[in-house]
Specification:
Elements: H1 6-18, H2 28-35, H3 39-45, H4 49-65, H5 75-88, H6 90-98, H7 103-126, H8 133-154, H9 162-171, H10 175-181
Helix pairs in contact: 1-2, 1-4, 4-5, 4-7, 5-9, 7-8
Length: 182
C-alpha cells in the first residue's frame, strides 16, 4: 500500500477547500488545519499556496506525459487524457483561474509546466539531443496555445467535447514536432 506524502495530503486539503472557497481566500492555516498539520509542516513542503498549485499541476501533467510511448500509448492518447484531466477538474481549475494573483499568472504556470514536460518527452524521443531553436519555439507556441484553449474551455467560453478539444490539440501540432509526437 502506497502511503500519501505530506505534499499529497496538503494538496488534497487545498483542493477540498478550493471546492467550497475562492482560492485567494484560502490561507496556509486553513490548508494545514483542514488536514491536521501545522503551518510549519506546510512551509517545510511548499513556500506558499502558489508553489503547491504549481507542484500539483506539474505532477498531474508529468503523470500523463510519462506514459507516452509506453505500450502503444501515443501522443493522441496523451492529449485526450490531458483534456480528460482538465474536464474532471474544471471547477477547481476555474477557481484557480478566477481567484489567483491574476488570471494570466496561472495560465503562464500551466504553459511553462506543459512546455517543460513536452521538451522532456521530445528529448527522450530524440535520444537526449538538444532541441533546435526552431523546435523549442514550436514547443512554446504549441503549449501556450493549448493552455489558452484549455482555459477558455474550462471557463465555459467555448462549448466543445473532450474528444473535440483533444482533436484540436492534435491537429495544431506544429510541423517540426510531428515527427516526435505522431
Amino acid at each position: 500500500m502506497k502511503r500519501k506524502t505530506a505534499k499529497e495530503i496538503l494538496t488534497a486539503s487545498f483542493q477540498e477547500l478550493a471546492a467550497v472557497k475562492n482560492v485567494d481566500k484560502i490561507t496556509i492555516r486553513d490548508i494545514a488545519d483542514n488536514c491536521g498539520y501545522s503551518p510549519a509542516t506546510f512551509y517545510r513542503n511548499f513556500k506558499d499556496k502558489y508553489d503547491l498549485i504549481a507542484w500539483e499541476h506539474t505532477r498531474a501533467v508529468a503523470e500523463i506525459v510519462d506514459r507516452t510511448g509506453d505500450d502503444d500509448y501515443l501522443w493522441k492518447q496523451t492529449l485526450y487524457d490531458g483534456a480528460q484531466m482538465y474536464n474532471e477538474n474544471k471547477d477547481y481549475l476555474a477557481n484557480l483561474l478566477k481567484h489567483t494573483s491574476g488570471h494570466d499568472s496561472f495560465m503562464r504556470y500551466m504553459a511553462e509546466i506543459n512546455c517543460s514536460s513536452l521538451e522532456k518527452y521530445i528529448l527522450s524521443v530524440k535520444g537526449d539531443q538538444k532541441l533546435t531553436h526552431e523546435e523549442m519555439m514550436c514547443v512554446k507556441i504549441y503549449c501556450f496555445g493549448l493552455v489558452g484553449l484549455a482555459c477558455e474551455w474550462i471557463m465555459g467560453q467555448i462549448d466543445i467535447t473532450i474528444e473535440e478539444i483533444a482533436k484540436a490539440y492534435e491537429q495544431s501540432i506544429p510541423e517540426p514536432l510531428k515527427k516526435y509526437l505522431l
